[in-house]
Write a structure and sequence with these properties.
Largest sheet: 3 strands, antiparallel
Order of helices and strands: HEHHEEH
Number of helices: 4
Helix content: 40-55%
CATH architecture: Orthogonal Bundle
Structural class: alpha+beta
CATH topology: Multidrug-efflux Transporter Regulator, Chain: A, Domain 2
Radius of gyration: 18 Å
Distance between the termini: 59 Å
Number of domains: 1
Length: 81
């Protein structure tokens, strides 16, 4: 049975949304700070650990929203690498 165009559109509309990732610039805007400060917060363990895609750093939007809703708790023990 061949699919009609309407059926294809229906399936695409009801598929789960792709996870939204935030960039370093997005995090800086969200936290109202500079991108350099975001890198410092990562190093000190004050923000959730980002996911690395090669050299790129990204955060899942849902994880950041949960972290902010919890009052921005410290995510890990920071210190020298």
């Amino acid at each position: 049975m061949a699919e009609t165009p309407n059926e294809t559109i229906f399936l695409k509309e009801n598929s789960p949304p792709a996870p939204m990732f935030l960039t370093v610039k997005d995090m800086a805007a969200l936290l109202n700070c500079s991108t350099r400060t975001v890198y410092r917060l990562i190093d000190s363990g004050l923000v959730p650990r980002p996911v690395k895609f090669g050299a790129l750093l990204r955060w899942m939007k849902t994880n950041v929203e949960q972290w902010m809703a919890a009052g921005c708790p410290k995510c890990r023990k920071g210190g020298v690498r």
